[in-house]
Specification:
The complex is a heterodimer. By secondary structure, chain A is of the alpha+beta class. Chain A has eleven helices and ten strands. The two termini of chain A are 26 Å apart. Classes of the chains: A alpha+beta, B alpha+beta.
Chain lengths: 418, 434
């Protein structure tokens, strides 16, 4: 049966060329899209290292000199911000609050520089300046199972020390846990030593960032080198007690007008972290939308192509099908034969397609997931398999109606003309 | 003769409804997607209120600067929006343009309130008075602040319709008080809601920047960058090279002064046209035109190629039916080119119908689904990417749609038509295509 099918397909080579070329092209393009989506899902489901439910981000602004309440004597906006944070910390609805600089999740930026210990230097890591309660607000966990509270206490004890994410020094071959307690230096300045106090689970700035961008360190925020006009780089993050997290933004905005003004600073914006997240993820979502639309387009074309061609062929081969039926083919045989023809074409087209895919991955044209190599066995097998499956399913759907029509063909009537 | 083509199309439709409808669907889908791709780009360039002057506007957006000794234009750059001082030195002093505006970009979210209404956040943009000359807002009541208001730092504010309704339940609110940044402002005008696709003009509240101390928010060595962008309105598009030339002398002079501070600015082809801005919205590099054209061409090529292969296969199927007829026509002396032409024109009628369906779908989708397809990458503001009907009915879009139809038709029918017209007469009469 299969041999016969193969021969028949070869005999119809001329009319199948279009289909095979189309299947080949679509296979390669679709594989690229599938790989892109696979990459994004694989990145998305990795642990984030923090928890932003019930968390809010608060920004402050300052009064202008023309304002009647302006205090010319107010000199340290850093201290004002600290005071506002303290007030928030004592607010009955709030579980934890912290001041930080270019550190909170989804902040999308900040300072990046290498960490150095002895002769070892890391890749560039995200330098975060925080108050110890940062760990409590975002519920970060230590690499040795420390609770957020314990991490906060560790940083509280030594104002000159720092913590780093557990994935630093991963490539150096050294056992990173043995580095705890050692003295490090920053910004290539070897005169100042800072003790590594503990390590925490890596924090990724957003769901679509790969590991390389989740390397960070946390040190205590201070007002060294701090200029008043740069207070906008500071922000306050708070965690609200779950049962009080109803209409929090409106309630706090109302209160803030009266009781949250310190010096010339006042609370000017309160945003939930879920909306910060949504706005950062939009770029990735837009790209995924475009790629998925592309995949849909490719598959729909396959559907139309197969449907149109096979519909026509069924009409053309009426007498042939009828003859098969007359000599004893069952409805199932006819149906199966029609369906397997498309799959055979796909399999033929898939062989060169997979070779092209392999070359594309080998040329590093896709996105990096783990290390600087986009040709990973599991990823490659999974994506080519998914691609094949998707097209096979579409072919099946496209051929369903023509095959059904062929199956229901009344043989006597079809052979009447002969 | 022409009538005959239509008759044939109708006959086809009756004879072979499924295959014909499938080809129409395939073409329509292709044109639909192609036009969506085109529209996603065009929406950033086509003029619409309040950015009706896009054809005459140049944008002076970011500034890149580096160490004076660093002669590499790509390495170790700092970049940011402009400070007021930089904007004035580089742009406001230009003589060729009709007007130059300095305005905050992007807008800031700020808490606003009036007595008796709970405070809420809105987008606030601080501008100068020329802003209102360059961008044509639709005022529902009142008017914008003018030069003397700006110079004397009058606390006046223009607000959008939606904000007016939320605060006061009405749009006739000129003269009413509103608290912005803990300071009282008087409303001087109410404008129709602005789509955030009009990136430069968009906000919900506009105030003169002379009323705040935003000009103090500067970064970098001698106050090079800050929170501002500029828009330069030329008298006519032809003036662009002249403006750029004038800008170049300004930036050279500026660089000469900066040398004392050991700094050098890199213009990155600023000021940029609307098109140049659209292809490199955030970058601190030069607009990469070639990369953009390559990408766009690749996408459009794929969107044409795949359906073309599909349609070729179906056209060939359809032609099978007419091979006998073609053979007889050939036997009676009809020229091959005539047959080729007939098949292509007949196909063109079909694909034009399909293309029209595709374009219509695209426009409907763009209008009702604008939130889905035009969402900006970084949602920095609280606006919506609404699209007005006037933009969608732009003749350029119709022309492009027809052009793509024509190309798709050629791609999909030329090979089958060539084969059919070059078949041996005897084979054709027997209904064979090869």
């Amino acid at each position: 049966m299969n041999k016969k099918l193969l021969r028949q397909t070869m005999n119809e080579w001329h009319s199948n060329t279009w289909l095979i070329v189309e299947l080949l092209l679509v296979s390669v393009l679709l594989w690229f899209v599938v790989d892109y989506i696979y990459f994004n899902i694989a990145t998305y489901i990795r642990p984030m290292g923090f928890d932003i439910t019930h968390c809010y981000n608060i920004q402050c602004s300052k009064l202008t000199p023309s304002n009647p309440d302006y205090i010319p004597a107010d000199t340290s906006y850093y201290k004002d911000m600290k005071k506002i944070t303290d007030r928030l910390r004592h607010h009955p609805d709030i579980e934890a609050a912290c001041l930080s600089r270019q550190a909170y999740p989804y902040s999308n930026g900040g300072r990046w520089s290498p960490l150095s210990y002895d002769t070892l230097t890391t890749l560039r890591v995200h330098f975060c300046s925080i108050e110890p309660d940062f760990f409590k607000v975002f519920r970060c966990r230590g690499a040795n199972g420390e609770t957020p509270k314990q991490l906060a206490q560790i940083l509280e004890k030594d104002p000159n020390g720092f913590l780093m994410s557990a994935n630093n020094f991963k490539e150096s071959g050294i056992k990173a846990s043995s580095l705890v307690g050692k003295g490090f230096y920053f910004y290539n300045d070897s005169t100042q030593r800072h003790q590594l106090l503990a390590r925490y689970e890596p924090i990724r700035d957003n769901e679509f960032l790969i590991d390389t961008y989740s390397r960070s360190m946390m040190s205590r925020i201070d007002d060294k080198h701090f200029k008043n006009r740069h207070f906008t780089s500071l922000s306050i993050s708070v965690r609200v007690k779950p049962k009080h997290d109803v209409d929090f933004i409106n309630r706090l905005s109302n209160e803030a007008q009266k009781s949250m003004r310190v010096g010339n600073l006042y609370i000017s914006s309160i945003r939930s972290f879920s909306s910060e997240r949504a706005s950062v993820l939009q770029t990735y979502k837009n790209k995924l939308r475009n790629y998925s639309a592309g995949a849909g387009f490719l598959l729909f074309n396959i559907f139309l192509g197969l449907f149109g061609t096979f519909w026509f062929r069924t009409q053309q081969k009426r007498s042939e099908i009828a003859l098969l039926k007359v000599i004893g083919a069952t409805n199932r045989d006819i149906f199966g034969r029609q369906l397997s023809e498309g799959l055979l074409l796909l399999t033929i087209a898939s062989i060169p397609a997979i070779i092209i895919d392999w070359n594309l991955a080998h040329a590093q044209l896709n996105l990096w997931l783990n290390d600087p190599n986009t040709l990973e066995p599991i990823r490659f097998i999974a994506t080519t398999f998914i691609t094949y499956l998707l097209i096979a399913l579409t072919i099946f759907l496209g051929e369903l109606l023509p095959a059904y029509k062929a199956m229901k063909l009344p043989p006597a009537e079809a052979l009447h003309d002969e | 003769m022409k009538n005959q083509y239509f008759k044939r199309v109708c006959y086809n439709l009756r004879q072979d409804p499924v295959v014909t409808i499938v080809s129409i669907l395939g073409t329509a889908l292709s044109i639909f997607l192609i036009m969506i791709v085109v529209l996603m780009q065009e929406i950033q360039i086509l003029p619409f209120s309040p950015e009706s002057n896009r054809n005459r506007i140049l944008h002076g957006d970011c500034i890149s600067y580096t160490n004076a000794n660093n002669h590499d234009d790509h390495q170790d750059l700092s970049c940011g929006m402009l400070s007021e001082a930089t904007a004035k030195k580089l742009y406001t002093s230009l003589k060729t343009p009709e007007a130059v505006s300095i305005f905050q970009y992007p807008p800031d979210q700020t808490l606003i309130s009036v007595y008796g209404v709970a405070p809420f956040s809105a987008d606030l943009k601080q501008t100068d008075d020329s802003f209102w000359r360059i961008f044509d807002f639709n005022f529902l009541s009142g008017k914008a602040y003018n030069k003397s208001d700006f110079n004397s730092a009058q606390k006046k504010a223009v607000i959008s319709e939606q904000i007016a309704r939320r605060l006061f339940g009405s749009i006739n609110v000129v003269g009413r008080k509103i608290t912005i940044n803990h300071s009282p402002y008087h409303i001087c005008g109410v404008v129709r809601e602005v789509s955030n696709l009009a990136e430069s003009a968009y906000s919900q509240i506009w105030i003169p920047y002379s009323t705040t101390d935003i000009t103090d928010d500067t970064w970098g060595a001698p106050e090079l960058s800050g929170s501002f962008s500029t828009a330069i309105l030329a008298y006519k598009k032809k003036d662009f090279p002249k403006i750029k030339a004038e800008f170049n002398t300004r930036s050279a002079a500026f660089n000469a002064k900066l040398k004392a501070e050991n700094l050098r600015i890199i213009d990155q082809e600023n000021p940029r046209t609307q098109f140049e801005k659209s292809i490199s919205p955030y970058s601190n590099g030069k607009p990469e035109r070639n990369k953009f054209y390559r990408q766009e061409a690749f996408i459009l090529f794929i969107l044409l190629l795949i359906p073309a292969i599909n349609l070729s296969s179906m056209t060939q199927s359809r032609l099978h039916r007419y091979m006998t007829e073609i053979g007889i026509r050939r036997a009676f002396g009809c020229h091959r080119s005539q047959i080729l032409k007939d098949i292509i024109i007949e196909n063109l009628i079909l694909s034009t119908i399909a293309g029209f369906v595709g374009l219509l779908l695209c426009l409907l989708f763009a209008y009702f689904g604008s939130d889905f397809i035009f969402t900006k990458n970084w949602i920095e503001d609280m606006g919506r990417p609404t699209v007005s009907i006037s933009v969608l009915l732009n003749p350029i879009l119709f022309l492009l749609a027809f052009l793509f139809c024509f190309v798709l038709n050629l791609m999909s029918s030329i090979i089958p038509a060539w084969q059919a017209s070059h078949t041996q007469i005897i084979n054709a009469i027997n209904g064979k295509i090869h």
